[in-house]
Write a structure and sequence with these properties.
four-stranded antiparallel sheet; alpha+beta; globular; 11 helices; 9% strand
């Protein structure tokens, strides 16, 4: 029993090592670090760019780091999912390396989950680099930062948000055995949910649909929305799990309110906000985490099943 367990562990670790070394040889990990550095630097420099254009001074922002979502946004999470997973499965079929890989005395289940775990480790290393860089950069650009002990929650949320898209890319890659289709298909899903979802949320008042779709989700406000007031915007989707967790720790009594935009009103072009409903921030967080887990489990489960049943020809 012990020998069998040890044997499986050794095979699992061998797959992880194989995948990580492949990523290093293909310079995938290096590319992710470079892209992460570029995006984080752009986020840090945004206020200075605006200051150079408008002449307005850069004000201290003690909450920059905890509000930065590790320097990425929804598209950033999606982009890293594409880079991490687009050829994890499909690339083996395209290059023909799937034949010698599956010829080894390792089950397809071990290969699949070893590759998935290697993708997670690659992502974790990249996001840890981002978190450290954003924390140091926040001090340099915006002065002393508050509540840095909550930054790991932002890291946790970023990992969850990206893993959903990784599972979607894996599913498309497993079904099509094409890295290009995996990338373009996932991009189409992202654009569809983002553009169509925004229209449904703002104009049709059907933003609740976005609660059950991966991405930025619906937009609610703590207080009245602009221009009626200076309410704080809260996005409810899976991309905002980290910031919402931090806000809940800092403001556990927050209640968010959803609105529908009515264009016209008594004056042409005027936007009137119609209140729809309210719910506690804790409900928003629980819902987004549950949605993330369900999508991840379902997508990974289908990908695993398809990979196990895939026909391999030399």
């Amino acid at each position: 029993m012990s020998a069998s367990h040890t044997s499986w562990t050794a095979k699992f670790l061998a797959v992880i090592r194989y995948e990580i070394l492949w990523n290093i040889r293909k310079k995938k990990f290096l590319g992710m670090i470079v892209v992460a550095f570029a995006l984080a630097t752009l986020s840090l420099a945004a206020s200075h760019i605006v200051s150079a254009i408008t002449g307005a001074p850069v004000e201290p922002n003690p909450d920059f780091v905890i509000n930065s979502n590790v320097g990425l946004g929804g598209f950033g999470f999606f982009l890293f999912a594409i880079v991490t997973a687009m050829n994890t499965i499909s690339g083996e079929f395209e290059s023909g390396t799937i034949v010698p890989l599956l010829a080894k005395p390792i089950s397809r289940t071990t290969v699949f989950f070893g590759k998935l775990f290697a993708a997670f480790l690659t992502l974790l290393a990249t996001y840890c680099f981002l978190m450290i860089y954003m924390t140091i950069g926040g001090f340099v650009v915006y002065g002393p930062q508050n509540n840095l002990h909550l930054v790991p929650l932002s890291l946790l949320g970023a990992l969850i948000s990206t893993l959903i898209w990784i599972s979607a890319v894996l599913l498309l890659g497993s079904l099509s055995k094409s890295s290009l289709i995996a990338a373009l298909g996932a991009l189409g899903i992202w654009f569809g949910t983002t553009i169509i979802g925004t229209i449904l949320a703002v104009l049709a008042g059907q933003g609740w649909i976005l609660t059950y779709i991966p991405g930025s989700g619906n937009t609610a406000y703590v207080g009245e929305p602009p221009p009626l007031g200076a309410g704080t915007a809260v996005t409810t989707g899976t991309d905002s799990i980290g910031p919402n967790l931090i806000n809940y720790i800092l403001h556990p009594s927050w209640e968010v309110t959803y609105y529908k935009a009515n264009i016209g009103g008594t004056t042409p072009g005027q936007i009137l906000w119609e209140k729809l409903y309210s719910e506690p921030l804790s409900t928003v967080i629980l819902t987004s985490v549950a949605v993330a887990l369900i999508y991840f489990i379902v997508f990974v489960g289908i990908s695993w099943y398809v990979f196990r049943r895939a026909q391999v020809t030399e």
